[in-house]
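Minutes, project check-in
Item: structure for the 311-residue chain
Input as provided by the requester:
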Amino acid sequence: MFSVQFSPLRVTACEMLTPDVMRLRLQHPTGRRLPPFEAGAHLQIQISEQHRRAYSLCSNPSDLSHYEIAVKCEHAGRGGSQALHALARPGIELAASLPCNLFALAPEAEHHLLVGGGVGLTPLMAMAYQLAAQGRAFSFVVAISSAGSSPFVDQLAASGWPVELVDNPRQKLDLRRRLEGLPANTHVYCCGPAGLMQRVREQCADLPGDQWHEEAFVGSETSVQTGFQLHLSDSGLDIEVPAGGSMLAALRQAGVAPDTNCEQGICGSCVVAWSDGEPLHGDQCLDDDDRSEYIAVCCGSCRSARLTLAL
């Protein structure tokens, strides 16, 4: 359903920000300026034939001499980040898409509150660069892990931005109090570990829906507590998805191999038509109109007992 074009970018610098987070600087092979992007954008990187992943740009959008991404090595993941950590070194070229933005800043906001932690800080760093350059009001709340680390802590300390570092965020993070002192039209942007995002989401529950923005590159499929059945209309197969299981895993186990690339709900390669059910959507590539007809099977699930897919 979605087509993505790739072109080579050369790795010109690698830096370990923490023991498991690597920052890569990417430049055009001939050194020319790169296509423009706005804060919140991501690239898709074709790491290998098996692995395509999306990574947020964390560099300054006003400096198009290069892009920067930060990649956490997920040792319990599906292999993409491990492959990139093993592969990346200065001089190597990676196939990359044009920047795509599903996490843009709201131009009408009176204040922008950026909240994140870990490698989830990457899109927020680009947002801070852009907001500071434009002279727009913002504040930046950074959750520090229990180990006391953050991949951008030194850069943030030297930035001059309005940054608050919060250690032990489980106990100390209090966004309700902070929001009380901010304009009514404050927009909140959150990216980080699932637990942090859930706490931030709960503390911002009274915020109007259009003032809440989050980005979560899903590493596993949406699951439900009860099982359901997939009916494949083209092949006539009925496939059981067990409680807590994933749609994509059940399809593969039954010998059905839908197209998948990023497996993060971003690229749209695994989108198929659905009918006769109540799907759960976990993607970031479809809008509400699309979701009335299509589902990204890499990160989708189902509330009803049965869902029909055009496979």
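Outcome recorded: The chain has a mean pLDDT of 90.
No further action items on this chain.
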